[in-house]
């Protein structure tokens, strides 16, 4: 079956990422809270074993997934006129992502993250939001946007821009996948009414619970059923759930791998899931590609290195039950 060309626009953050790893970055558990923390004494030099460079940001990570899956993709966001912005640009051009909608702001610096990676792939991220946090409605000529899909990651809580994008998509038959960030989730009362304009909402267990409640990810996804056509919740190595057309789909981990770095796993899952839908695949294939993409990403440093290229993947065993 020949595939019809699909155009996707991604919206959100772009950053340059630097990953630091070594024995000194191993986390310690606090006895009273059972939380893992990293602590460093002031005024000393700490040796690390390795440094890795990559680019990140939810929207650019997703854009690379779509490009590697053979889809026509463009990135909409803001960077600064600086070396970090140059690297973001270079990386996206290399992947074949169109940048005609990207804004370069000479007065702001590009987003930047220093990522301290502990054993097992868990990490602490020091973030400078930079230019991508300042994408305004006036920066996006919304009325001229043409696509089959919008993939919207965090817009730094800019509900004017989010609302206008969703309304434009609704009027022009554009399907929308939404992967909200903390700035959107903190304003849940504003976000919930907009979900009727969304095709896919994807979030992790804690994020979905902030919107819909629930005792666990299964319960939360079931509660959210009917909010939009596809409600997808992820729970790390425990797998994922999707509520679609009266059915609850449960997928485990794609396969067991040693997690080197979990940065970008959520972006990889969400964009892999949507890439399959955009190609006309069934829900089982969407869950499989999302899971396989996330599994590949966490096995390597960086949010983009392990993103899968187009090709056949093994469909997972997926449990289906009625809602």
Plain-language structure description:
There is one protein chain. With 323 residues, the protein is an alpha/beta fold. The protein has a single domain (7-14, 56-107, 132-322), classed as UDP-N-acetylmuramoyl-L-alanine:D-glutamate ligase, CATH 3.40.1190.20. Helix content is 28%, strand content 25%. The protein is built from nine helices and 17 strands. The protein has helices at 58-68, 83-95, 159-171, 182-185, 188-191, 205-212, 217-224, 265-278, 283-298, and strands at residues 7-11, 15-21, 28-29, 36-37, 50-56, 72-76, 78-80, 103-105, 111-117, 123-128, 149-152, 175-178, 200-204, 230-234, 240-244, 247-251, 318-322. Strands 6-1-11-12-13-14-15-16-17 form a nine-stranded mixed sheet, sandwiched between helices. Strands 5-2-9-10 form a four-stranded mixed sheet. Helix 2 (83-95) links the parallel strand 7 (78-80) and strand 8 (103-105). Helix 1 packs across helix 8 (265-278), helix 6 crosses helix 7 and helix 8 packs antiparallel against helix 9. The model has no long low-confidence stretch (mean pLDDT 92).
């Amino acid at each position: 079956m020949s595939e019809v060309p699909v155009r996707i626009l991604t919206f959100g953050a772009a950053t340059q990422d630097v990953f630091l790893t070594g024995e000194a970055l191993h986390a310690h558990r606090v006895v009273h809270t059972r939380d893992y923390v990293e602590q460093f004494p002031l005024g000393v030099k700490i040796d690390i074993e390795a440094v890795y460079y990559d680019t990140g940001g939810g929207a650019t990570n997703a854009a690379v997934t779509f490009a590697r899956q053979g889809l026509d993709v463009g990135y909409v966001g803001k960077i600064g006129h600086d070396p970090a912005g140059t690297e973001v640009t270079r990386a996206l051009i290399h992947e074949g992502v169109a940048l005609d909608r990207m804004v370069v702001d000479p007065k702001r610096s590009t987003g930047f993250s220093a990522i301290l990676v502990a054993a097992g792939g868990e990490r602490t991220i020091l973030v400078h939001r930079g230019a991508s946090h300042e994408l305004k409605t006036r920066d996006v000529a919304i009325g001229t946007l043409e696509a089959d899909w919008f993939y919207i990651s965090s817009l730094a809580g800019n509900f004017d821009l989010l609302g206008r994008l969703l309304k434009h998509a609704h009027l022009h038959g554009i399907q929308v996948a939404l992967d909200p960030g903390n700035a959107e989730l903190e304003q849940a009362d504003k976000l919930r009414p907009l979900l009727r304009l969304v095709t896919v909402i994807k979030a992790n267990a804690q994020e979905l619970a902030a919107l819909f409640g629930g005792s666990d990810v299964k319960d939360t996804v079931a509660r959210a059923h009917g909010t939009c056509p596809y409600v997808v919740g992820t729970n790390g190595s425990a797998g994922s759930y999707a509520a679609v057309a009266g059915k609850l789909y449960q997928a485990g981990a794609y396969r067991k791998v040693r997690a080197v770095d979990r940065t970008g796993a959520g972006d990889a899952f969400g964009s892999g899931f949507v890439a399959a839908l955009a190609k006309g695949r069934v829900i089982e294939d969407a869950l499989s590609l999302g899971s396989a993409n996330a599994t590949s990403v966490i096995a390597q440093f960086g949010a983009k290195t392990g993103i899968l290229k187009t090709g056949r993947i093994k469909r997972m065993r997926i449990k289906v039950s009625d809602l």
